[in-house]
Structure formats: structure tokens, C-alpha cells
Amino acid sequence: xxxxxxxxxxxxxxxxxxxxxxxxxxxxxxxxxxxxxxxxxxxxxxxxxxxxxxxxxxxxxxxxxxxxxxxxxxxxxxxxxxxxxxxxxxxxxxxxxxxxxxxxxxx
Amino acid sequence: xxxxxxxxxxxxxxxxxxxxxxxxxxxxxxxxxxxxxxxxxxxxxxxxxxxxxxxxxxxxxxxxxxxxxxxxxxxxxxxxxxxxxxxxxxxxxxxxxxxxxxxxxxxxxxxxxxxxxxxxxxxxxxxxxxxxxxxxxxxxxxxxxxxxxxxxxxxxxxxxxxxxxxxxxxxxxxxxxxxxxxxxxxxxxxxxxxxxxxxxxxxxxxxxxxxxxxxxxxxxxxxxxxxxxxxxxxxxxxxxxxxxxxxxxxxxxxxxxxxxxxxxxxxxxxxxxxxxxxxxxxxxxxxxxxxxxxxxxxxxxxxxxxxxxxxxxxxxxxxxxxxxxxxxxxxxxxxxxxxxxxxxxxxxxxxxxxxxxxxxxxxxxxxxxxxxxxxxxxxxxxxxxxxxxxxxxxxxxxxxxxxxxxxxxxxxxx
Lengths: 107, 414
Ligand SMILES: Cc1cc2nc3c(=O)[nH]c(=O)nc-3n(C[C@H](O)[C@H](O)[C@H](O)COP(=O)(O)OP(=O)(O)OC[C@H]3O[C@@H](n4cnc5c(N)ncnc54)[C@H](O)[C@@H]3O)c2cc1C
Ligand code: FES
What we know:
- The structure holds two protein chains of two kinds.
- By secondary structure, chain A is mainly β.
- Chain A has strands spanning 7-12, 20-26, 29-35, 41-45, 59-61, 64-66, 73-75, 81-83, 92-93, 95-98, 101-105.
- By secondary structure, chain B is α/β, with parallel strands linked by helices.
- Chain B has three domains: 5-111 and 243-309, FAD/NAD(P)-binding domain (3-Layer(bba) Sandwich); 115-240, 3-Layer(bba) Sandwich (FAD/NAD(P)-binding domain); 328-413, Enolase-like, domain 1 (2-Layer Sandwich).
- Chain B is 24% helix and 30% strand.
- Chain B contains ten helices and 26 strands.
- Chain B starts with a strand and ends with a helix.
- Chain A binds chain B through residues 19, 37, 51, 53-54, 57-59, 61, 66, 68-71, 84-85, 87, and chain B through 17, 43, 46, 50, 61, 65, 295-296, 299, 321, 323, 330, 372-374, 376-378, 381-382, 385, 406, 410.
- Residues 9-15, 34-37, 44-45, 47-48, 81-82, 108-111, 129-130, 156, 245, 248, 277-279, 293-296, 298, 322-324 of chain B line the site of flavin-adenine dinucleotide.
């Protein structure tokens, strides 16, 4: 196979509800794993780029995640910061789903 | 070549945001911001949190990204005050003797802390908490084992109490009213906040007023209360609310009404002059005015006012929302509870308490919460969404912590 990514098994798909987000801690870092209403999966850093908050504690609407602390929003598909106070984009990671498990390339 | 100048007095949150919004909306001519404070423009909320705890400096939360002002051709006159407005000539007089012509003028002058006019107020060691210099002076006083008296049990006082405890101080909060945050939150929430603070070591004295400060060699050494109590302390923080900064508007003869009065377009009684943020009281409807003192209001008004200064007529619709961090807990309030007749409590498993305020038609008017960041933000956000869409879930649904309130919105969209 030509799959050169460094996939690491994160969570079972059942751990992330549709239209919601779940936190995954790995090797001292936190990741946010999103599942849209139409079953697409995405992964980003879980720590907000503004002050400090786990964005997986925040509110998902469509393809946006709103930070629980000061309501800065990101597009979780691209990591783009959408409104103040956030102005630095979130890092995103490639995701794949296989046999009911979510894999992330965190390299 | 002559260029029209948009002049902004105040580089606080609303003034800074307005300058950015002017450029973002395509204003290509001049923009000048004037601020008397003489600092790199910064966010105030961290002052009573991370800055008091000594975790970071005020400038670490700048309002403009580094290089933004220069890259966007915005003139910033720092350390200079605006002293008078010549309305007929459309010129602003400055403390350095210069005058600036303006195309439109924005008064984003913020608020000043209320003071206590009691004997001994001139002792050193008594501080308001509004700007970076206040926070830095207080932070130096918050040494382990030191006695601190905080006057006023509102949001700023409680955040200061939490910071002082985390630095090992002995903290007493004196509140004239019967409970904490009287204006902002309902009784069950204020009692929850009180118990949390007490569990961390804060001592509260309710229904008492400060009548004097005692001093020794010019430095504060006690606070006297109206019931005869004397509290020994070496520093005191006065956090009894703020007053809108209206002196410039007043001297120029603009209409005032608990702040610089503006219409729904944030325009003052002079159509060339606008006001935004803590300083402005805006028209909500006939005969109804409101002045908000929170970050979200400064943020939203800053953007709306910029578009209106450029010729737009966008009414400002407030979506009041604010947060506060106290110890490991967070508090958020959204909406306006004034028209509410009843409330429903939602008690989450992790101890978070959320309160939904209902009007006589069972519609949510406001929501407030204290507890974990996760439950507070999710519960308040769900409440905001229900308010915006005019949805009315049952009382049982609001009460039940296992009921995901977002499903009501989804049901409507689907
Ligand atoms: C300690 C603290 C903690 C806070 N925490 C929170 C929080 O957790 N959540 C929340 O929602 N809100 C919080 N707030 C409120 C929020 O910071 C304010 O609502 C916001 O700063 C208002 O912005 P503003 O632009 O209206 O005014 P300000 O930020 O007060 O800015 C006004 C500026 O105008 C300048 N100025 C005034 N008059 C003149 C003049 N004549 N000439 C030149 N310059 C002038 C002043 O120097 C000042 O810099 C907090 C406020 C404080 C003080
Ligand atoms: S910490 Fe996320 S918006 Fe401030």
C-alpha cells in the first residue's frame, strides 16, 4: 500500500457522537476528534490558541467548534480561527476510520 | 493630499476593535486612535485573573497583533488625552496642545471605578482595579500571609479574592448588600459562589459598609466598618462598580443618560460623533436604554459602530454574555433576566449549577451558571441558542442534566 502516514489508533467511533466532539489524550497532548452529522471525522489540537481551554469542552455547531472559555470559534475541518478573541489557527491532523476505529496521523 | 480622518478616543476593547473593523470593512483613509494611558493596548479581563496571580504581565494579552497598527497605517497617539471637542469645526483638542480634524469621532472612553469618599482614603495600599498599573501594584502586595480587605462582592472583587487566596493571602470581602453579585445573578447561584469561596478560605462580611481607613506612617493598616468592626490589613482593593467616562461628551454638550446616550446605530446626539463600549448607553426601544459593561458588548459594538461610521445603518442588537473565572470554577451569564418571572435550576453531576430564567410565556430570557468550564459553557450556549431561536423546551428538559438541549435546535433545522 502507498499509505505512508504514521497512523495511531485513537478512539472507537462509538466514543464520538454525531455532531459532537471527544477528547483524546496521547503522549502528554490532547487532541479533539470531531464527527459531523454526516459522519465525517476530523481531528485538531484540543488546546485553544487564545488562552487556555480544552476546546472539546466546547460547543459544536455544524463544522464549527466554539471555545468554552471566551467563545472564539474555529472551523474544525481546516483549523481556521473564525472570530475574536481567537486569531491563531488550530493545528489539524489527518484522520481515517477503519473497522470502527479512528486513526490519527499526529506526526 | 487631504484624507478624511476617523478619530477614536480610547484604545480599550471597543476602540481597538472599531479601528480593526474600519480597515476590515474597507476604510482606506486615515484612522487615529488616542489613549491617555500610555500602554500598548491590552485586554482588561486578565488583569483580575492571571495578572493578579502574578502569572503574566498585562501586555501579554494585546488588543492588536504585533505590527498590526503600522501595517494597517493606523496612527496611535499614546499617552495623550483628548480634552475637548469643537463640534462646529469637527476638531478634537488634545492634551499636547494639538488639534485633530475628524470626519467621524468615536468616544470609546470606557469606565472609571467608583471610589469611596471616606476618611483615610489617601493612605497608600488602597487600590481600584481597572487598568494594568492597578493590577501590577496589587499583584506586588499579594504576598503570602498578608491581610487583604476587598470592598465589594461583585465580579471583580470575587476574582481578586480568588487570586489573593491563590497567592496565600488572608482575604476578607466586605459587601454592603445581603449577598454576592446582587445585580448579576440569582440567589441560588450567589449562594453557590459564596460557599465555593468560603471553602477556599475567603471570609465574607455582608450588610456592612466601610466608614474609614486607618493608617500608620502613611500606609494603610486597617479598615473600619459601620458596625464598629476594625479589620487589620496592609492592602485594600475597592471594587464597588464603575461609572461611565463621560466628561468629554458632557463638556461638548452631548446628551447623557447613564453614559453617553446613543441611538440604535450607536450615534450620539451629534450625528458626526459615535460612542461604544462601557461608556455608552444605547437605545433598545422607545424609552428603553441599556449600558453594558462587558467584553462581548465592547467587541460587538466596536464592529457595528465602525460600519455605521462609514455610512452604514446597522442597528446594534445586544446579545449580552459574560464570563468570570474564580478559583478552578467558571461563571457565565447570557441574556437579560429583568423580564423573567421564574427560573428553573439544572444541577449537573459534577456540581455545576445552571439557572434558566423564564418569562410568563415560559420563554428563556437569560441563563447563568457556575461550575466546570464544560458544563457551564455547554449549558449557557444551549440557552443562548434556545433564546435566539425562540424555542421553549419543557421545564423537565431544562432541569434534566442528562437531556442534551442542543437536540431542540437540531429538530428545528432538520
Ligand atoms: C479587571 C477587569 C476584569 C474584567 N473581566 C471581565 C470578564 O471576565 N469578562 C467580561 O466580559 N468583561 C470583563 N471586564 C470588562 C471589560 O474589560 C470591559 O467591558 C471592556 O474593557 C470595555 O471596553 P471599552 O473599550 O468600553 O473601555 P476600556 O477598556 O475601559 O477603554 C477605555 C480607554 O479609553 C481611554 N480614555 C478614556 N478617556 C480618554 C480621554 N479623554 N483621552 C484619551 N484616552 C481616554 C482610557 O485610557 C482607556 O484605555 C473586566 C474589566 C476589568 C477592569
Ligand atoms: S481560551 Fe479559547 S477563546 Fe479564549
